[in-house]
Write a structure and sequence with these properties.
It is found in: Membrane. The strands form 2 sheets. The chain has a two-stranded antiparallel sheet with strand order 1-2. A two-stranded antiparallel sheet has the order 3-4. The protein starts with a helix and ends with a strand. Helix 4 runs parallel beside helix 12 and helix 5 crosses helix 11. The chain contains 17 helices and 4 strands. Helices cover 55% and strands 2% of the residues. It is mainly alpha-helical and 427 residues long.
């Protein structure tokens, strides 16, 4: 337990043999009693502050640098003995975890510098607009690409669109498409359990960013190799991006956003890097993280009240349409990722529909209103307006399990496949 001021004062008095009064403290005897008392109280207060600063600094050091496992207990200082059952990590695990922490710390410090430049007006308007456009492109690469296309097979795409989505997803620096899909499928199969890489039942901070700063839970490591990734390994675009991910991420997320504003409209190189590269990256990163945290905690559950994911409009705005999370976890194979067709709150659906017009996106799968209404009547929280399509009678098909990750999941009920509406079908 951290010492409070009373504890610290007691310890200091015992160590220095100082009584509660100030009559015979360390000040010289020539000082008056009132002056001695004042000096003694000041000395005690300074030592209390130093002790508390030292304690919390060491604790922060432990939390940030030494507490790398999923063990919730944290040592009070680097010199305190570890718990008897503390998880012993390999040198490789320790190195990779500390590297991620240093990376997250560095990009956030640089992003703060970029934010300062924006607030103080030291950046050109073109640079800010470019950063917003570049960030939106990366978000669509994550939501319409890694998420709806590859994780859930909610639609199919020809190779030019797959390449475009893979490059856009790389801009976000959220791991390769292959790793992103693997973790996201596991998230759907074991939502909000220890096997979920960002289990929201462990709190907001953990589900938002903490999961990336510590070693995964043993339950995750025991399940991750069970995810079927054969479809990803058969996609040459996914494997190409996987092999070249590091240089592509450096080029697309940091080098180009730094050089283009400098080259095209004369922005300062450092300003361009801090705003268009670092600040843009951190903002888009946290917007995606909100899906794992805020959209699993706050909002309505009109389709399934028995699961944590919610309908969160603010998260949808921040992520180009991926905040309608209660619907998504109920029907993960719907390419719209939502029931509504408001493109202002679902920009990724608009992009998919636009590419379907030129034939690059096809086999767009969506849930018929009848099936949505039946499921909402049966398991929803009552906040969805009844459209009159279907009812909750016993003749309705049973609700699909909540642990389905997408269209290619073998656990997807056959009734859902038969009832699904598919637009722009391939020949």
């Amino acid at each position: 337990m951290s010492p409070n001021a009373t504890d610290s004062s007691t310890i200091l008095r015992e160590e220095r043999k100082i009584p509660n009064g100030c009559t015979n403290g360390w000040p010289s005897m020539s000082d008056s009693t009132e002056k001695q008392c004042w000096k003694g109280q000041a000395f005690l207060k300074i030592n209390e502050i130093v002790a508390l600063v030292k304690h919390y600094s060491l604790r922060a050091y432990i939390i940030f640098w030494h507490e790398l496992s999923m063990n919730p207990r944290v040592r009070s200082s680097p010199f305190s003995p570890p718990p008897a059952d503390e998880l012993v990590l390999s040198k490789s695990d320790v190195f990779s975890t500390r590297r991620r922490r240093l990376f997250f710390l560095s990009i956030h410090l640089l992003a703060l510098a970029g934010l300062y430049l924006c607030v103080t007006g030291q950046v050109k308007l073109y640079t800010v607009m470019f950063a917003m456009a570049w960030g939106t492109m990366s978000s669509i690469g994550v939501t319409a690409g890694a998420h709806r296309l590859w994780s859930h097979h909610a639609y199919k795409a020809k190779w030019p669109l797959r390449v475009l989505m893979a490059l856009s997803q790389t801009v976000g620096v959220q791991y390769s498409v292959y790793n992103w899909v693997r973790d996201h499928r596991l998230h759907h199969k074991y939502t909000d359990t220890d096997a979920d890489p960002h289990n929201s039942n462990r709190g907001f901070f953990y589900s938002h960013v903490g999961w990336a700063l510590i070693m995964p839970h043993p339950a995750f490591e025991s399940k991750v190799n069970t995810v079927d990734m054969a479809d990803m390994e058969a996609d040459w675009v996914v494997m190409w991006q996987y092999r070249l991910y590091a240089p592509l991420a450096f080029l697309l997320s940091y080098a180009l956003p730094t050089v283009l504003p400098w080259w095209l409209w004369g922005e300062d190189l450092l300003v361009a890097h801090l705003v268009a590269a670092q600040l843009r990256h951190v903002l888009t990163l946290h917007s995606t993280f909100l899906i794992n945290s805020a959209a699993h905690m706050w909002g309505l559950r009109p389709y399934d009240k028995n699961i944590n994911p919610t309908e969160n409009m603010l998260v949808s705005v921040a992520t180009c349409g991926d905040g309608w999370h209660n619907y998504h976890h109920t029907f993960p194979w719907d390419y719209k990722n939502a029931e509504l067709l408001d493109y202002k709150l679902n920009l990724s659906t608009l992009v998919i529909d636009m590419f379907s017009l030129i034939g690059w996106a096809y086999d767009l799968k969506t849930v018929p209103a009848e099936l949505v209404n039946k499921r909402a009547l049966r398991t929803g929280d009552g906040t969805r307006k009844n459209t009159g399509a279907g009812d909750a009678s016993t003749t309705s098909p049973p609700p699909p399990p909540t642990n389905v990750y997408g269209w290619t999941d073998n656990d997807l009920p056959e009734e859902d496949r038969q009832m699904a509406q598919i637009y722009k079908k391939s020949d």
